[in-house]
From TrEMBL, chains A, B:
GO function terms (MF aspect): DNA-binding transcription factor activity; transcription cis-regulatory region binding
Residue ranges: DNA binding: 44-63
The protein's name in its UniProt record: TetR family transcriptional regulator
Alphabetized SUPFAM superfamilies for the sequence: Homeodomain-like, Tetracyclin repressor-like, C-terminal domain
Keywords, alphabetical: DNA-binding
Keyword Cytoplasm among record annotations: no
Matches recorded under PANTHER family: HTH-TYPE TRANSCRIPTIONAL REGULATOR RUTR (PTHR30055)
Xref: Pfam families: TetR_C_3, TetR_N
Organism: Pseudomonas trivialis
Start and end residues of each HTH tetR-type domain: 21-81
InterPro entries tied to this protein: Homeodomain-like_sf, HTH-type_TetR-like_transc_reg, HTH_TetR, Tet_transcr_reg_TetR-rel_C_sf, Tscrpt_reg_YcdC_C
Superkingdom of origin organism: Bacteria
Chain intervals for the UniProt region annotation (Disordered): 1-20
Length: 219, 219
DNA sequence: GTCTATACGTTGATAGAC
DNA sequence: GTCTATCAACGTATAGAC
């Protein structure tokens, strides 16, 4: 369910040296920023190198090529991504669990908007780099997640809402605050979305979605 | 509130010839497809020309340069975009008007997903080409739209939900079905989203959002 | 109005000295 | 491991014949 990141010169067995770890981190961080702002094609190795404070040739020493670096960045993102969704279980109280999930997603949109944007651009562009990620395993995992909502429905804890569409509503509404932050700021006359803005947005989403699904507040 | 499209060789006064109209349309259509699939930087004039069935130099004859062509495409999209939102008025019954708006947006996501994707990528990339679009006028227009929801709240027709966040929920949840269609298909094992899929998604959104906002169904 | 040929910058990637 | 120099491919854009 995760991406195969092509190994380069770091041969198996040898532990990563301290300098290697430091440089790889710097490159990955710089790449994440640039890819989020300009997309895959719009980002040049030159820019990433400058942002990481290293000569361009070093990037090719640590990563096979541009695509390899991009896949590595994408892979890091996906790990964080899925883990939050696994916290939901059929035994949870829907009001508590859903509210917590929305808060977590909003927190993610606030603290790692670049990650959300890279994923969004990749999907919009056809998501060919995610083909192996969206494997049979992933669909099974997704079904399992949808089953949690179905269990809540069967237990009479919420309205009979198609779990699949509910999941897309949760993803779409929370990620919107990361991906479209620019529009939100321009339209509301802000320079950036503050922590408080995001918390208010989250409270709002929780109100509408929980009530909309017929979930009674936790006692 | 709209974009200034740089005029090129079509001097004012002269009506567009039939051949010019035909070619410009072909170029714009091809450009829309390519920009949606690969973003601004990821699209080459060469590809657009091939897709439009014209030699590359012709694009530069009809449009000043690549950016001019891109702005023209973007401009076409924005016109369609805003008009649907203007249909809402304070006198409307919220249940009817909101449901109709969600249907319209979903219809838009179904029929013109490329437009939605180009807009999304532009915003994610910082939206510098939309600076003049997001002018003072636009913010005034947006406030006016938010005021409609506030009027409904004041009239006791819906819960006191921040209109601004409600608008972002409407936009985010409906556009998600255009922008993330690839993910939705991969995850649910479809090859494409059918008309029926989109209608079910719309019905679902209407149920959750209307109930979530405390809007009673129209009698 | 149309299209071939080409100028010229930028890109990803590598060779090879250190 | 690091970095300068360089290459081939591709990008936008234009000149100029038709």
């Amino acid at each position: 369910m995760s991406l195969e990141v092509p190994a380069h010169s770091n041969h198996a067995g040898k532990p990563a040296s301290r300098i290697r770890q430091k440089n790889e981190q710097a490159i990955l961080r710089a790449a994440e920023d640039e890819f989020a702002r300009h997309g895959y094609k719009g980002t040049s190795m030159n820019t990433i190198a400058a942002s990481a404070g290293l000569p361009k040739a070093n990037l090719h020493y640590y990563f096979t090529n541009k695509l390899g670096l991009y896949i590595a960045v994408l892979s890091n993102i996906l790990e964080l991504w899925d883990s939050t969704f696994n916290a939901l279980t059929a035994e949870d109280d829907p009001a508590v669990a859903l509210a917590r999930y929305i808060r977590t997603k909003m927190e993610f949109s606030r603290r790692q908007p670049q990650a959300s944007r890279i994923f969004a651009m990749e999907i919009i562009s056809g998501g060919e780099c995610l083909t192996e990620y969206f494997s049979q395993d992933y669909r099974a995992w997704f079904s399992g997640r949808a089953a949690v909502f179905q269990a809540w429905i069967d237990a009479g804890k919420m309205d009979p809402i198609d779990p699949v569409h509910l999941i897309f509503l949760l993803w779409g509404s929370t990620q919107h605050y990361a991906d479209f932050a620019t529009q939100i700021c321009r339209v509301t006359g802000r320079t950036r979305l503050t922590r408080q803005d995001m918390e208010e947005a989250g409270t709002n989403l929780i109100h509408i979605i929980l009530k909309g699904c017929g979930i009674k507040p936790a006692q």
